[in-house]
Amino acid sequence: MHDENATPVPDESTDGHSRRAVLRTAGLAGAGLGLGTFAGGTARADTPDASGTAGTAGTAEGPAGAAPARKGKTMIGVPFEARSTVRVGMIGLGNRGGGMIDLFLAQSGVRVVALCDPAKDKAAAAAKKVVAAGQPAPATYTNGDNDFEKLCARGDIDFVYVATPWDWHFEMAKAAMLNGKHVGVECPLALRLDHLWELVDLSERTRRHCMQLENCCYGKNEMRVLRMAHAGKFGDLLHGAGAYNHDLRQLMFDPTYYATPWRRLWHTRLRGDLYPNHGFGPVANYMDVNRGDRATHISSFGTPALGLAEYRKAHMPPGDPSWKETYIESDRTISLVQTAKGRVIRLEHDVSTPHPYSRVNSLGGTKGLFEDYPARIYIEPDHTDDQWGDFSKYAAEFDHWLWKEHANPPGGHGGMDYLLVFRLMQCMRLGLVPDFDVYDGATWTAPVPLSHASIKAKGAPQEIPDFTRGLWRKARPGMDSEKPKAS
């Protein structure tokens, strides 16, 4: 993620989990993500089985368009259990988790009861924040990579927050739900289609919510465009675009920013879009994906992988361990997602070349369009001179109630982090249905393995699974929520 008014900081934590994560990532990468074909000719990604060895999509989850048998009732529309106090356990206290704890502590009716990070200094620093906020000293779990399992097993936790290197997300979300906890995970939710299906099935079986904590959905511009789209200001929606174009070269080679080079090493293993959620989530909301429309296919293309090697040559000394790495991840990945209604969503990913930060954030329809970075709009009948209009003129009518109630929210990323935590904790305290669910998280994350498979297949379209098992056809509420009467 990116704070436009501060030093760029990515979404994930740098913590002691990284060491083992690097080893586990190597095993996953060795399994590979091969290709098979459907009878209809659409390529699909083979997915490694639970042991990490190469399997096929047929054995892992069936053809991408054919959902496995449901193992529990749907979690669509299921509210949280109302409670006066939400008891939170946090796993990962580095860059991301170490900052997000401040926002949990800023909420009324929220208590941070347990912390986990193998880096004892990070856990101690976070514990001091809890005490300074007037709460009892939290329990801390710092005894190795798997101590998070003890945190998840506690009987006094309602919600587990996960901010660790990516390939731990699946295991930690799974452990939380199996222990009866709701769980929120930083991007991405998981890295394999069979793992995404397993999280969907676990959420349904355990009746616990498993959420991708996509903070960009709570951006001021994103929420305003969402409300304008639902009000018909763009007419019938036709196309949208989202991206994560963020120059991370310096941070990925910084020997102190990440505890290990886990994030950079993903560029030696996958060619696809490693971080689609920030761009995909908001546009999926505009188009009511999983709420009347569905993402059905993705085709991806990638450029040569040159940026990281050039940066290494210019900045890293001979003998640095990075010289043993071979980068294959496309410097820029461009994907096209088709929806059931025929709409098109363009996704971009580029963290390896010099450019200003942009999430693109665009939406177009039969009455006009919005484009961000910088924010500008052109819709009929408001604009007729082929000149971009002033987007701020729509604030009074279309700003979401969250932004009207919290005009200057604290925290990073322009306040969207705070609003995500506030709204999630509000839904848990009041017993409301969450703004997004496990089906959204799985859909927004599916481009990670599928874009890799498509690039390997020279752009051949990959089927995106219907994680809702057909329930996407029914319109239902999402991010465009109404302010609750009680707060």
What's the short story on this structure?
The chain has 487 residues and is of the alpha/beta class. The chain contains 17 helices and 16 strands.
Which tags fit this structure?
487 residues; alpha/beta; eight-stranded mixed sheet; six-stranded parallel sheet; 17 helices; 16 strands; 16% strand
Shape: globular
Q: What's the number of extended β-strand segments?
A: 16
Low-pLDDT runs of 5+ residues are 1-64
Separation of the first and last Cα atoms: 28 Å
Number of helices: 17
Mean pLDDT: 88
The major β-sheet equals:
8 strands, mixed
Helix content: 25-40%
Q: How much beta, percentage-wise? A: 15-25%
Given helix and strand content, the structural type is alpha/beta
Radius of gyration: 21 Å
Placed side by side, the strands forming the largest sheet appear as 15-14-13-9-12-11-10-16
